Design the sequence.
């Protein structure tokens, strides 16, 4: 009976060890997927801090992208993870994308909440880690007019936060003069 008890305890200890190794493996997978990125910027407050902390870099990115947009014949530009678009190279964008989990940066002319055309830059952050949801997007954007950009329908305002539920749940909120937080949930 004693031998069976020791064997049972050994099996339990081995099971616990296997669980710990499994958890450690999952943690390593998450860290490796982050690829040296600083952290996940998912919460609204974190993006507010990001904009305020990186205002100098964002101003430089704005100028860099405005020049490229004009040089590109005012055609939309989209930068994926490497910070490049065809013949153009964007050092500020490359540096930000190297350091932070940015999925993409787009530049184009959009209509703001008043229907006026505005130069806009949208920076989308990517989900990094083990649990990735393909139906939840967030980030920040710059609107030259200083007014929020709607998703696909008119925005309803409540307490300084703008919402739309056309096609998805869209939320946007002012961070600073021309910078906004956004989140889309499908």
Sequence:
């Amino acid at each position: 009976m004693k031998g069976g008890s020791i064997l049972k305890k050994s099996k339990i200890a081995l099971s616990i060890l296997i669980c710990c190794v499994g958890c450690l493996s999952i943690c390593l997978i998450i860290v490796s997927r982050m690829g040296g990125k600083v952290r996940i910027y998912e919460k609204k407050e974190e993006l507010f801090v990001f904009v305020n902390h990186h205002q100098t870099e964002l101003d430089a990115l704005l100028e860099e992208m405005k020049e490229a947009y004009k040089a590109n014949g005012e055609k939309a530009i989209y930068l994926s993870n490497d910070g490049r678009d065809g013949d153009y190279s964007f050092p500020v964008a490359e540096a930000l994308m190297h350091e932070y989990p940015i999925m993409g940066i787009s530049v184009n002319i959009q209509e703001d909440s008043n229907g006026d055309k505005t130069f806009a830059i949208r920076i989308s952050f990517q989900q990094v880690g083990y649990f990735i949801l393909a139906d939840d997007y967030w980030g920040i954007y710059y609107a030259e007019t200083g007014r929020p950009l709607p998703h696909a329908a008119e925005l309803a305002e409540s307490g300084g936060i703008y919402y739309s539920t056309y096609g998805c749940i869209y939320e946007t909120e002012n961070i600073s003069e021309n910078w906004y937080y956004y989140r889309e949930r499908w």
